[in-house]
Design a protein that fits this description.
Blueprint (H helix, E strand, L loop, with lengths): L2 E5 L6 E5 L4 E5 L2 H7 L4 E6 L3 E6 L4 E5 L6 E5 L5 E2 L1 E3 L4 E5 L13 E3 L23
Parallel strand pairs: 3-11
Antiparallel strand pairs: 1-2, 2-5, 3-4, 4-10, 6-7, 7-8, 9-10
């Protein structure tokens, strides 16, 4: 069985997910823009995976946006996104950026493209650097 490990930015929350990811979605909805502070969220979904908190479970807070299916779990120390177990929907949502182990899966869908920010549409000509430029 595949084992995925991850953590928050400060290292206070550590988790593992045993199982496979069913999908990898880039969501451009306005809720995801707000909760990531970016153009989109990058989330992996697992319907069969088992989420285990290895450290810091008591530091995980989940915010459920009223009258929506949108929720976000995060470390109360550093604010980093961590997995959400969406029990009512039957899956675990894992923010791709919190994984410490590499994944072979690439995004298989971009959703809510009607909400995509204008500044994120044509980025292929933006200057790129391997690290912080001097």
């Amino acid at each position: 069985m595949k084992m995925h490990k991850g953590s928050c930015l400060c290292g206070s929350v550590v988790f593992e997910l045993a199982g496979e990811f069913d999908s990898f979605v880039l969501c451009h909805c306005q809720h995801c823009q707000k909760d990531t502070g970016s153009a989109h969220a990058a989330n992996l979904f697992s319907t069969s995976g088992t989420l285990t908190w290895l450290k810091g479970r008591g530091l995980v807070k989940t915010f459920q946006l009223p009258e929506t299916q949108h929720s976000k779990s995060f470390c109360q120390n550093c604010g980093s996104s961590v997995p959400t177990h969406a029990e009512k929907l039957g899956f675990v949502v894992v923010p791709a950026g919190c994984l410490d182990t590499p994944i072979a899966k690439t995004p298989n869908a971009k959703i809510f493209m009607r909400s995509q920010t204008k500044w994120s549409k044509c980025l292929e000509n933006v200057q790129s650097f391997e690290a912080l430029p001097e």
